[in-house]
Design goal:
Layout: H1 5-12, H2 17-32, E1 38-40, E2 43-46, H3 51-67, E3 75-78, H4 88-91, H5 95-110, E4 135-136, H6 139-149, H7 158-167, E5 169-171, E6 185-189, H8 196-210, E7 215-218, H9 225-238, E8 245-246, H10 253-256, E9 264-268, H11 270-279, E10 288-296, H12 298-308, E11 317-321, H13 323-328, H14 330-338, E12 341-345, E13 361-364, H15 367-375, E14 379-382, H16 385-389
Parallel strand pairs: 2-3, 2-4, 6-7, 6-9, 7-8, 10-11, 10-13, 11-12, 13-14
Antiparallel strand pairs: 1-5
Helix pairs in contact: 1-2, 2-7, 3-5, 6-9, 8-9, 8-11, 12-14
This protein binds FE3-S4 cluster.
């Protein structure tokens, strides 16, 4: 890989051992993927934050980097942790886990990372521009930033996003290059999606059928922000979709029309959605109702508040969101709390230690959440929000 004089000196240690180590990581990664050079990136979004996934080994690696002097030089935000950093006792998180989680966040803070702890950084002001090169992890956020915003990132990992944050650089390959952003299959939707759950289902089906391709999707209707985030999250979960184009929906779709001739086509109909839903649905007796995967928007909290106002959810309704959105949603959160619902920040149903918290069954409108919870051995049900909470709005 070509390195500029300055990059060579960074690799040799001119900016300290932490930068040298991170340069080594980026160069190795670039060599594996045949990158010709490194390029500057505007921002990073770092995954691998929950103590549930990191454990002491992961925490040790992070601490080692901080001890070597790793410090971010571009904006860097964090993905969800394993608990609400203030309300973990109320959540039922074990103390030992909480202590480990606090140590993880402290290490990231030492490196200068913003402890946002959300998978929707684009909802709280970390929103790149069309064409920006960034280094983001968290597959749902990658799908959103690449497709809906039109910025450019590969599906990065925790360590590579830290390397980019510390050096300000990323290897130039994959979705960073024009030619790799072109679609290679057309998806025609035969059933007009109506609910956020419909979009989540379609994303899940596309991921399952198409793996890591770049789909060009026609007849998507007019998806809301909520539907767009749910769609990408599901597509990235069942397959490895990191970029998609939606006709009349995403910013690069028009330019991609020039590359559609001769592409294979698949169709998705109502029957496929029912089948996908049934695949993750079991008869449940007393489920936790879990919403906010990806993290809930202000609009979602408003909708939930309207549906549960004056009812008693008995602690069985859990909604996960970012601190930024939580801070704006005071009146809705008050209503949800009064109805016996719970709203937590910094974490989610997948990265919190929910097995240790006693969860056995979950009902959700998110295919991503259901997919992971089922793979962790919980019983799941997929439903629309009106099926979960009733029709009052
Ligand atoms: Fe976000 Fe957790 Fe879902 S990180 S996308 S809420 S699994």
């Amino acid at each position: 890989m070509y390195l500029s004089k300055h990059e060579e000196t960074m690799l040799e240690g001119s900016e300290g051992p932490a930068v040298a180590k991170m340069m080594e990581l980026l160069v190795t990664l670039g060599d594996v993927f045949g990158a010709g050079k490194l390029i500057p990136v505007e921002s990073a979004h770092i995954s691998g934050v929950s103590y549930k996934n990191l454990g002491e080994a992961g925490l040790g690696w992070l601490r080692e980097q901080a001890d070597l002097g790793a410090e971010v030089r571009i904006r860097a935000t964090l993905n969800p942790a394993g608990m609400d950093m203030d309300k973990w006792v109320e959540m039922g998180v074990p103390t030992e886990f909480a202590e480990g989680q606090k140590r993880v966040i402290d290490v990231f803070k030492r490196m200068g990372v913003e402890s946002t702890c959300t998978c929707t950084p684009y909802l709280i002001g970390h929103r790149p521009e069309l064409g920006d090169q960034v280094a983001w992890a968290e597959s749902s956020a990658v799908c959103y930033v690449n497709s809906v915003i039109g910025a450019r990132t590969n599906r990065e990992s925790g360590p590579t996003t830290i390397a980019s944050a510390v050096t300000g650089l990323a290897a130039f390959y994959g979705y960073r290059m024009n030619e790799n952003r072109r679609p290679n299959v057309i998806v025609d939707l035969l059933h007009k999606p109506v609910s956020t759950m419909d979009y989540s289902a379609i994303g899940y089906i596309i991921g399952k059928r198409l793996g890591t391709t770049v789909p060009y999707i026609r007849d998507m209707g007019n998806p809301s922000t909520e539907s767009l985030k749910a769609f990408g999250a599901a597509a990235a979960t069942s397959g490895g979709i990191g970029l998609w184009h939606g006709e009349n929906v995403t910013p690069e779709a028009d330019a991609m029309k020039a590359y559609l001739d001769g592409l294979d086509k698949i169709t998705i109909g109502h029957g496929d959605i029912i089948e996908a839903k049934e695949g993750l649905t079991r008869p449940l007796s007393d489920p936790e109702i879990v919403l906010g995967c990806p993290h809930a928007t202000l609009g979602e909290l408003k909708e939930v508040a309207a549906r549960v106002k004056g009812r008693n959810m008995n602690g069985k309704l859990w909604i996960f969101t970012s601190r930024g959105v939580y801070g704006e949603a005071g009146e809705y959160i008050k209503v949800i709390h009064e109805a016996g619902g719970r709203v937590y920040r910094d974490t989610c149903m997948v990265v919190a230690p929910v097995e240790e918290m006693g969860w056995k069954q979950v009902a959700t409108n998110s295919f991503k959440a259901a997919h992971y919870m089922a793979s962790h051995g919980l019983e799941t049900r997929i439903s629309t929000i009106s099926e979960l909470l009733g029709d009052r709005r």
